[in-house]
Amino acid sequence: DTLAAIDKAAALYIGTEQEEGDKDTGYMLYNLAERLSDRFSYPSYDGIGSPVNKEIVKLFNDIQSDYGAKSTCTDSPVTGSERLHQQASKIINQMKVIIMQGQIRAIVTESDYYAEIFALQLTPLIAMCDWDKAMDLQDYLILGDGYDKDQFDDVFATLQSSYSCMGFTCKDVGRFDSAEAVGECIKNESTDADISILPFADVREVSSFLDGYYEYTTLTDVGYLPDIADDIADMVDASVEDARDIYQNGKNAVKSDGSVGLTLAQLSTQTELEMKDDEYFKKFYKNLADVSALSDYDDELPDDYANTIVLDVLNELKDDEMAAEAVVVVTIWMQVAHFLHQAVSECKAGVNAVNYNVVDRVAEAVDKAAAFYIGTDQTQGSSEEGYMIYNMAERWSTYFGRDGETGETSPANSKVMIAFDNIKDEFLLTDWCTKSADAYRDLQAYVDTIIEQMTIPLIQGFIHYMQDNNKNFVELYALQLTPIIAECDADIAADMKKKLITEGDGYDPDMMDVTITQIQSTYYCLGISCDDIGTYDHSGITIRTCVDETQADLTQSGLYVPLTDVSNIMKFADDVRDIRAASTEEDALSVYEDGKNVVDPDDSSEKWTLSSLSTNTIETMATNPVYQMYRYTLWDIEALGEPIGNYADTIVRKVFSELGDVTDTAEDDLLVADTVVTSIVWMQIVRYLYEAVFECSNGSKDDTLAAIDKAAALYIGTEQEEGDKDTGYMLYNLAERLSDRFSYPSYDGIGSPVNKEIVKLFNDIQSDYGAKSTCTDSPVTGSERLHQQASKIINQMKVIIMQGQIRAIVTESDYYAEIFALQLTPLIAMCDWDKAMDLQDYLILGDGYDKDQFDDVFATLQSSYSCMGFTCKDVGRFDSAEAVGECIKNESTDADISILPFADVREVSSFLDGYYEYTTLTDVGYLPDIADDIADMVDASVEDARDIYQNGKNAVKSDGSVGLTLAQLSTQTELEMKDDEYFKKFYKNLADVSALSDYDDELPDDYANTIVLDVLNELKDDEMAAEAVVVVTIWMQVAHFLHQAVSECKAGVNAVNYNVVDRVAEAVDKAAAFYIGTDQTQGSSEEGYMIYNMAERWSTYFGRDGETGETSPANSKVMIAFDNIKDEFLLTDWCTKSADAYRDLQAYVDTIIEQMTIPLIQGFIHYMQDNNKNFVELYALQLTPIIAECDADIAADMKKKLITEGDGYDPDMMDVTITQIQSTYYCLGISCDDIGTYDHSGITIRTCVDETQADLTQSGLYVPLTDVSNIMKFADDVRDIRAASTEEDALSVYEDGKNVVDPDDSSEKWTLSSLSTNTIETMATNPVYQMYRYTLWDIEALGEPIGNYADTIVRKVFSELGDVTDTAEDDLLVADTVVTSIVWMQIVRYLYEAVFECSNGSKDDTLAAID
Q: Do 765 and 792 contact (CB within 8 A), yes or no?
C-alpha cells in the first residue's frame, strides 16, 4: 500500500508525455514548474530545467529506493513511516515553491486571474504557520476588488517573509526575471544565510535535536535549555564535589555572553514559582508529604523536594552517577510533564485569548517539554548517547526486549515522538487552539499518551533495580512512581511507599514478586500494557512474562493465551456477569445501556457498552455477509422495527421490557444475559473472525492476531474454568450449560465437545499465524486457509444455537424458543430460505411455539444440520424425560450428512487439495473427471489419444458407461451455447479462418473440435492436442458456465418455476469443475490438467509463481472470486432478492475471465520465444477474439500474420506482437505485473510496461513499481482541457471525464471534478486539506460545502472565462487552476497515504501511493 501510494503521487506529479526539463511537454505540476522556472534565475544552479523538479523527482526516486528494494515499512513500520513523513514533507515543501513562483509571476505580470488562483492555493499554506499573513494576502489578492499593483511592495514583502515558515528558502524560489526588477530576497538580519524552515515567525531562532530520521525541530526559541543535558553528562564523569558544583552552579546551559543561564538545581528550587498552579505537580507533592526524609525544618515537604533528593545522594551516598540519574528520574521527568500540562492550559485559554499569541505560548511549552525529553547529543534509537528521558527509555528498553534494531527507536520513544509530531501538525501548524473550544481536550489526549509512555522507563528501571537488589535506586524510583500509581490505586501506592521508603529497612528481595504484581495490577489504569513493559531479560536473568490482571484470567484458564492486549474487550464478560447478578431489572438495564467495566477505545472517559456493540454493527459489519443475512432474514419481523441493522439491540430491549412487566428474578437476568450473548456477543465474534481474514489478506500479522485474540476473548470471557458450566459468562459458558443436557456416545472428554473443538481451532490459528509470518509472507494463501479455519469456528458456534433451540422446544420454554429462533433462522436462511421461513412461522410469528408442532419443528431443524456446516454427532442427543427421536440420517449412507449449503441429501464434489479445497454446492457428477481424459491423452499414442478424445474414458456414469467425452464439449456447442453472447463473439471473430470452415465454407459451431482433430490428424501430436483441448475447449466451457450463472441470476427476482439459486450454483460449480478438474494440488504446476494447472505452469516461466504450495496470483484471484460468489450470492440467495444482483455477479465473472486470459498470453509469449509456430497459432486462435473486444485492428493484424495469411509466425514478429498485446492489457482488465517478465532457460524478455505507464517510465524521471496506468491519465484529461476548441468541450472533460476509468465502476469515468468533490471523504483527516478548509471558510464566493472549494474555484474560472472569451490562454488558465487546486492536493493525499500505509507495515501500498 505504501508503494502504491507513492507511485500514485509521482504519477500525478509528472503525468504523461513529459520530457525531462522541458516546458513544452506534459500537463501536470512538473510541466507547470518548468514553465514557471523559465522566468526565474538561480545563480548557484546550472542544471537543466527547474531545480524544484530536480529536487522533487530526486526525492520520489530516493523514497522508491528506500522503500521499494527494502522491506522498511514491513520490518520497521514506526521508524520507516517517521522517515517517510520527513521525505514526503520535503516534497510538499518543494511543491509549495511552485505555487509561490506562480504567485510572484502573477503579481509581477499583473495577471489578475492567476493572482487570485494562486492566492487561493497559497494562503492556506501560509496560514499553517502564520495566520495573520495569510489573512493579509487574502485581503490583497482575493477579497474586495482583487490585486492592486500599488500594493506590490507590501504583497511581495509578505510573500517573501513567509518562505521560511513554509519550509523553503529564497534559493529554492529564485529571482523573477522581469523588466521591472524585483527586490532581492529578504534575509534574516542575524545571518547572511537564507531563512531556515521556521513554521511560525520568519526571524525566530530554532533548535534541532535528536539526530536521525526524526529530527525534532522546535517552533520557538528554547535557547540553551537543551544544553542542560550536558550538565547531567558531566556530573556522571566528575568527582562527587565537581558533580555537586555542576548541579548547583551549572556549566553548559550558558547565555550568549557566556554566563550560566540555568542550573539543574534551579529546575527544582524554582518549582514554587514555576509550578505553583500545576495540578499535576500538586498530586506528587501531596503523595510525598509524609516522607519525613524529604521534609524541611518545619517538618513540611518543600516545593523543591527533588533538590533534596539529589543533594542527599551527593552528600550522604557520595554517588555522582546516582545523583545524575536522580536528576533525570525526578527533576527532568517532572519538567516534561509540567510543560506538557502548561501547553494544555494555554490551549484551553486559546479561543478567548486577546493579549498574547496563544499558538506561540502553546508551542513554547511543547518545545520546552520536547527539549527536556530529548536533550542534546541524542541519536535516534541510541541507548549509548544522550542523557535525558529519551535516553533512559532507550536504555531500559534493551533490558526488557523492547529495543528496536540498530538505529531504530524503542516503542515508547516512537509513540512519544509521534505524539509530539501530531501536536505540531494538528495544533500548532493549524492554530487549532484559537479555533476550537474543544482543542485542549484533544491536546490533553496526546499529553496523556506522552506521560503514559514516560512511565514505562520508570517501571522498567524500578524492576531492574529490584532484581539487582539495589536498595537505594529502588527507593529513588519508588519516590517518583508512587505518586503516579496513587492516582490508580491509593492502597497499593501507600503500601509501596511504606515498605520501600518510609518504614523499616527499605527494599528486600522477598518483596519483588508481590511488588511487581501490585504494579502490574495498575497498568491498565496507567494507560500501558504488559507488552509495553516487556519481559526482563538481562545478564542471564529472566523475570516471568508480565500478564495484565484481566488478561491473566484468560491465560490462567489454560484455554487460550492471547498474544495481544485483550484486557479491555474481555471485560464485556464482566458486564454480562453484572447483568446476571443485578438485583433489579433497572440495574441490569443500566449495565447494558450505560456500560460498567469496559472503557470506550475511542474515548477513555466513556464506557464501551453492550448496547453500542449492536447499534454500531451497521457500520462495523456493513460488508459482513453473515450480518447482512441476519438483516435480510429478520427484515419482515415488524416487532424488530427500524433500523433493522440494530435488530440485536431491539431484541435485548424487548426482553427487558417484557420481563419487567412480569417479574424480576435471577432466571430473568440469566435470560437477558443469554440473549445478549447469543444475539450480540455471537455476532461480534463473527466480526473479529472475518476481520482477521481481512487483515491477513492485507499482509498484517499483528492485526490478524489482534482480531483472533478479540474473538477468543469474547468467546471464553473472564472467570471461565475448563469444562465448567458454573464459571464464566460468555458463549463458552452457555455451551457448557447446554451440553450438560446432551449426550455424545463417541465423546468421553470433559465438558462440551463444541468448546473443545472451538478452543482447539483458536489455538491452532494462533499457532499457525502467531509463531510464523504466514500473513506477511503469503497473504493470499494465508488468508484462504484462515478463512477455512474461521468458518469452522462459526459452524461450531452454530451448534450452540441449535442446542439451545432444541432444549427450548423440548422443555417448552417460550422465551428461549423465540430468542434462539431469532438467532438460528438467519443461519439456516443462508442455505435454505424456505426452511428458515417455516421456522419463523413456527417459533417467532403468530402466537409463537406450539408444542403440537414439535415433530415438524424438530424435523426441520435436524434436516438443516448439514447445510449449516455441522453434523448430528456435533449436536448430540438431547436427554429428556420425553425422548427425542434419533438424528435424521441421509438415506444413502449411514454417516451423518456432510456440510451441504443447500439440500440435505444432495451429493457434492470436492477438488483442489490444499488449504483452499473447493466444494461444490450442487452435484456436478463425473464432470471433473474429464480432466483425466486430458491426462491420458498426453501419455497415449496419437491413435489412442484420438480415441480417448472422441469416445471418452474417465467421465463415467454409475453404471460404468461413458457419460461425457472431450469431443462432445465442442460438438454439442450448438445446443449448449446457441444463446451465449460471449461465445458468439469468438464465433464471429474466427468466421474468416478458412482452415476451420466446413464444406459450406462456414465456421461450424464446433470449430474447437476441428482444431483438436487437425492437431491429431495432421500434426500427429497428442500432447499438443491435449493442450489444445484446455486452451480452446475447456477455457470456453468455464467462460460459458460463468455467463450462464449471470443469466440465471438476472432472471432470479422474477423466477417462479425453478430454484434460481440451484441453477446459479450449478452453473458456477460446473465452471469451477472445468477450471480446476481432478488431482489438482493447490499451487502445483506438476499436478492437474485444466486451466488451474495451466495458470500455475506458465506462472513459473514469468516469475509469478509463489513459494512451494502457494498459489499463483491469477489462480488466487480466481479462487477468491469463486469463494466470494458462493458467500455473497449462493449462500444468501441474493439473486432472488435483488434485481441488481446479476450486475455484482458479473463483476466477479469478469474478474475470473480476466485472470484466465493471463495464462493464454503467457503461453503465447513463451511459444513465440520458443519459435514454435504451431503452438503460436493455437494460442492466437483463442486470444484474437478476446483482444478484438479491446482493439479490433490489433486482433485483425495478429490473425492475419499468425493464422490466415503467409507462413504464420516468424521470430521477427515477436517484439511488435508483444507490444500490440500489451497495449490492450488495461482494457483486458490485467496489468504488466499480472503477466510478469519472461525468464526461462536463461532467456529473459524485456520487462512488460503498460502503454500509459511506459510514458512515465520512458521519460527517465521516475519508474513506478506499481500500476499507475489509470491514474496517470488524469494528465490526459488536463491535456484535453488545454486543447479543447470550446469552453463547453473543456468543461465536459472536467465534469464528465474522458480518459480515466472509475476504479469503483469500470463502466464509468473518474473525473477531475470528483477528485475535488470526494476530497471531503478521502482526505477527511488530512491536516493540509483541513487547513485549506479553515483558511478559505470566510470567502463567501466559494459557497458551501467548503470541502469542495477546489471544484468551486475551477467552475468559477470556467464561468468567468466563458463570459469573456475562449482562447488557448483561457484553456491553459483552467488547466493550471485544475493542476494547482485539485491535482496538487491529490499528490499531498497520496504522500500522506504513503506514510500511513508505511506505519501499518504495508510496503506495497506505500509504494503505490508514492507512484
A: no
* C-alpha–C-alpha distance, residues 1172 and 1177, integer Å: 9
Q: Which of 11, 7, 10, 35 is nearest to 21 (CA)?
A: 35
Task: Enter the DSSP assignment of 313.
Answer: I
Backbone angles phi, psi at 379, to 5 degrees: -95, 140
Question: In this predicted model, what pLDDT tens digit does every residue of 362-403 receive, in sequence order?
Answer: 888 998 999 999 988 888 888 888 889 999 999 999 998 877
Regarding predicted confidence, which is higher, 1110 or 1351?
1351
pLDDT of residue 772: 65
> By the 8 A CB rule, do 1006 and 973 touch?
yes
The torsion angles phi and psi of 621, rounded to 5 degrees, stand at -125, 30
Strands (E), 457-559: 537-538, 541-542
Closest to 1398 measured CA to CA, from 198, 58, 68, 302? 68
For 1176-1189, the pLDDT digits (tens) are 999 999 999 999 98
Distance CA 1099, CA 1378 (A): 42
Q: What is the CA radius of gyration of the chain?
A: 36
pLDDT bucket at 664, cuts 50 / 70 / 90: low
**Of 560, 558, 534, nearest to 547 (Cα)?**
534
Alpha carbons 634 and 646: distance in angstroms, whole number: 11
φ/ψ (deg, to 5) at 1244:
-120, 130
Determine the Cα angle at 96 with ends 90 and 101, to 5°.
135
- 1104 phi, psi to nearest 5 deg: -115, 15
- Secondary structure tally for the chain: helices H, strands E: 72, 13
pLDDT of residue 642: 62
Please name the residues in contact with 89: beta carbons below 8 A apart, sequence gap of 6 or more: 167
First vs last C-alpha separation in the chain:
10
Q: Where do we find the cell 504488559?
A: 530
Q: What would the grid cell of residue 803 be?
A: 442446542
Residue in this structure with the C-alpha cell 523573477, named with its chain if needed: 176
CA distance 1351 to 1361: 15
What the block records as the C-alpha cell of 1319 is: 476530497
Q: How many CB atoms lie within 10 A of CB 1205?
A: 9
pLDDT in the model for residue 1001: 66
Nearest to 446 by CA among 482, 421, 471, 470: 421
Contact 1275, 1254 (CB under 8 A): no
Among 1212, 1222, 1299, 1218, CA closest to 1254: 1222
The answer to whether the beta carbons of residues 937 and 1089 sit under 8 Å apart is no
CA–CA gap between residue 230 and residue 211 (Å, rounded): 16
Model pTM?
0.39
Measure the CA dihedral 76/542/491/486, to 10°.
-30
Residue 191, Cβ density class (10 Å: 0-12 exposed, 13-18 middle, ≥19 buried): exposed
Buried b (16+ CB within 10 A) or exposed e, 1350-1380: bbbbbbbbbeebeeeebeeebbebbbbbbbb
Count Cβ atoms within 10 A of the Cβ of residue 471 and give its class: 0-12 exposed, 13-18 middle, 19 or more buried.
middle
Task: Give the model confidence (pLDDT) of 1303-1352 as tens digits.
Answer: 777 778 899 998 888 887 888 778 888 778 777 777 777 766 566 888 88
Three-state secondary structure call for residue 1202: helix
* Residues paired with residue 3 on neighbouring β-strands, in sequence order: 1405, 1407
In the three-class reduction of DSSP (H, G, I as helix; E, B as strand; rest coil), residue 698 is classed as: coil
Length of the chain: 1411
Concatenating the DSSP letter of every residue in 1337-1355 gives TT-GGG-S-GGGHHHHHHH
Positive or negative: CA dihedral 1187, 1189, 1193, 1196: positive
Q: How does pLDDT run across 510-534, given as a tens digit for each residue?
A: 898 889 888 887 887 888 888 788 8
Checking if the pLDDT of 457 tops 50, the result is yes
Asked if residues 448 and 528 have their Cβ atoms less than 8 Å apart, the reply is: no
Quickly state the pLDDT bin for 1118 (edges 50, 70, 90): very high
